[in-house]
Amino acid sequence: MAETFDVIIIGSGPGGYVCAIRAAQLGFKVACVEKRATLGGTCLNIGCIPSKALLQSSENFHEAAHSFKDHGIEIGEIKLDLARMQARKGEVVAANTKGVEFLFKKNKITWIKGAAKFTGPREIEVEGKAYTAQHIVIATGSDSVPLKGVDVDEKRIVTSTGALELDKVPGHLVVIGGGVIGLELGSVWRRLGAEVTVIEFLDKITPTMDGEISKAFQQSLTKQGFKFKLGHKVSAAKIEGETVALTVEPAKGGEAETVTADIVLLAIGRRAYAGGLNLAAAGVETDERGRVKIDEHFRTNVPGIYAIGDVVAGPMLAHKAEDEGVALAEILAGKAGHVNYGAIPSIIYTWPEVAAVGQTEEELKAAKVAYKIGKFPFTANGRARAMGATEGFVKLLAEKETDRLLGAHIIGPDAGSLIAECVTALEFGASAEDVALICHAHPTLSEAVKEAALAVEGRAIHI
Length: 463
Known about the structure:
It is a single chain. This protein is an alpha/beta fold. It folds into three domains: about 5-145 and about 270-340, FAD/NAD(P)-binding domain (3-Layer(bba) Sandwich); about 155-270, FAD/NAD(P)-binding domain (3-Layer(bba) Sandwich); about 345-455, 2-Layer Sandwich (Enolase-like, domain 1), CATH 3.30.390.30. The chain has 14 helices and 22 strands. The chain has helices at about 15-25, 40-45, 50-65, 80-105, 160-165, 180-190, 210-225, 280, 320-330, 360-365, 380-385, 415-425, 430-435, 445-455, and strands at about 5-10, 30-35, 110-115, 115-120, 125, 130-140, 140-145, 155-160, 170-175, 195-200, 225-230, 230-240, 245-250, 255-260, 265, 270, 305, 345-350, 355-360, 370-375, 395-400, 405-410. The strands form five sheets. Strands 1, 2, 3, 4, 5, 6 and 17 form a seven-stranded mixed β-sheet that branches. Strands 8-15-9-10-11 form a five-stranded parallel β-sheet. A five-stranded antiparallel β-sheet has the order 18-19-22-21-20, with helices on both faces. β12 and β13 form a beta hairpin. α3 packs antiparallel against α4 (about 80-105) and α3 (about 50-65) packs parallel to α6 (about 180-190).
């Protein structure tokens, strides 16, 4: 006989585990299915958390080697202990995944271990055992997009998973794809000494980013030693002993060339993952890209089955999945769960950091929206000077007639934290003047946001 729950969530990534916790808080009997040996999904195990651990460690290494002397700190020869750095990353991951397991126990959530598959509209099977629920939530996330002619072995040709586990610094790392994942992991290995070449099909990196920010970002990475081949594609990859030979061609046609690498990182994006779920047995519809179709309340075409996170349309961001998980749990409890997709920030954790929320200048032009721009450089910010981190700027976009804030784009120190103020402003429909009139503590990096808001009306004080 099938074991019954009020809510079963398939997948324990940020969307799934947060949905499970919120549903339990609201009084539901909850179970979460996870096939990994640990909870947390891609993000905690092989994505967001381990990559940020390595980014922080590699940043510390780079600072010690290149910047400490500017602060009067002499520490002699700098040596890299990559094994310890990787071990620390593992410790950070373990602490986070065990934290989720603790939260499951605290909230009396049942962890069903194994891979789930639908056997009907309200029933799943895991490891040969049947489970039913009034509500079933698909939160199975995403996986790396493959590329024809480039066969991943996670040793020489790797995805982000393999790039996080390298046991030595590659002499030459070639990154296929100029997006967030490739640039973050490229930054890790560049700081540790690798030569890094990024091959991007389009004529710019981070193509969804505000154009001015993207250009500044590429210039910054170039100064750090990155090499870029924009407007090019990889048509083949052949492992030859200890190296990989890549066939690289101009995207619009032309003569091919061979690029040799020690390690190749395939990072051209991610795709919705619903493998093995047997969605057909439940009658759940997917779109042409394999994403589960949902309505504005996360409902699939089958009553009682819902989907959130990377497996549905929208930005593939952990915090977007978390917000959807909370909203869905509250909807199931009869509350007004809601996600404002116009105020979801995105962050690239390189140095300098890059963060954005709302619309880009290109989007406003395409929509024929009249707008104003306010910019402020970190070179004119006292705290940034004291830190020795003056690269970058804050850029705010406001509607010309009403002054309502439409978008915020930051490249510079701690941009990921600074963007939170702008997210709040967008969420509450604030004007650029509202942001400008708020008292910002001195000396802080956040003053750059205030000054950019003042600059919308040409009122910036320190430039």
